[in-house]
Amino acid sequence: MKRLLLMAGAMLISVMMFAQTSGTVTFKVTTSTASGQYAPKHVLAIWVTNDAGTFQKSLKVMAAVRKQYLYKWKTATPSQNVTDATTGATLTSHQTHTVAWNCKNTSNTVVADGNYKVWVEFTENDAQGPYTSYSFTKGTLSDTIDFSDATNFANVQIIYTPAVSGIEDQPGVATVLNFPGLNMFGFSVPSQLAENAELQIFDLNGNQVYVTTSYRDEGLNRLFYWNADAQPEGLYIYRIESGAKEYCGKLFR
């Protein structure tokens, strides 16, 4: 009996270690100048590693020839892998960046549950610039983490939302409705958790492209609308904030 219990315990630990929960991580950060040689122009990288430092995926790399000075990012991924990342030229000003990770690595495989880090690095010089990392746990439980401001990095937040089966009306995830033939989206949340709620839409550069406090009361639910006609096709982040709950996720326009 004791042998069987030990074997069952080992199997349970193995299952827990290799669980692979699908989900979405939304990371937000506002950078500020380090008064470098080319300030406020700078190159920037945001990427994910596991707790041991093993590279998982680049989320955003804004650099051309000067990406060579993103030393921490280059150490994490010597091949400078930007699979599925948002990429572009050198940034001309500091700003808020909002990026999303689908919890998959560069091979498009959902990574194992556990502790991960989101890294952010930028430089305004032909040299190492400011960098830091923020830790979170990926698993079956949703989480929202607000980090304290630090030199060069402020308004930092990580929102982890595990995938749920069926209708996504669990706390932390809004039911997203797309109306055929229209660039219209609906966001349904439980009415008892939507007091004083506000819908915000962001593009992947962190720009707020829409905000409203208007909704349609449907009894048990409240429905927010976004007419996306004015926005180009791409990935967007939605966020519904209220005094009782926060909902966040991504959608394609």
Looking at this protein, list some descriptive labels:
single chain, 253 residues, mainly beta, Immunoglobulin-like, 2 domains, five-stranded mixed sheet, four-stranded antiparallel sheet, 2 helices, 44% strand, disordered N terminus
In a nutshell, what does this entry contain?
This protein is mainly beta and 253 residues long. The chain has two helices and 17 strands. It folds into two domains: 142 residues; 78 residues, Immunoglobulins (Immunoglobulin-like).
List the helices and strands and how they pair.
Layout: H1 2-17, E1 23-31, E2 43-50, E3 55-62, H2 71-76, E4 86-88, E5 96-101, E6 114-123, E7 131-138, E8 143-146, E9 153-162, E10 175-178, E11 184-190, E12 198-203, E13 208-212, E14 216-217, E15 221-227, E16 235-241, E17 246-252
Please tell me about this protein's structure.
With 253 residues, this protein is mostly beta strands. It folds into two domains: 21-162; 175-252, Immunoglobulins (Immunoglobulin-like). It is 9% helix and 44% strand. It has helices at residues 2-17, 71-76, and strands spanning 23-31, 43-50, 55-62, 86-88, 96-101, 114-123, 131-138, 143-146, 153-162, 175-178, 184-190, 198-203, 208-212, 216-217, 221-227, 235-241, 246-252. The chain has a five-stranded mixed β-sheet. A hairpin with a 4-residue loop joins strand 16 and strand 17 (246-252). The longest helix has 16 residues, at 2-17. It is globular and about 55 Å long.
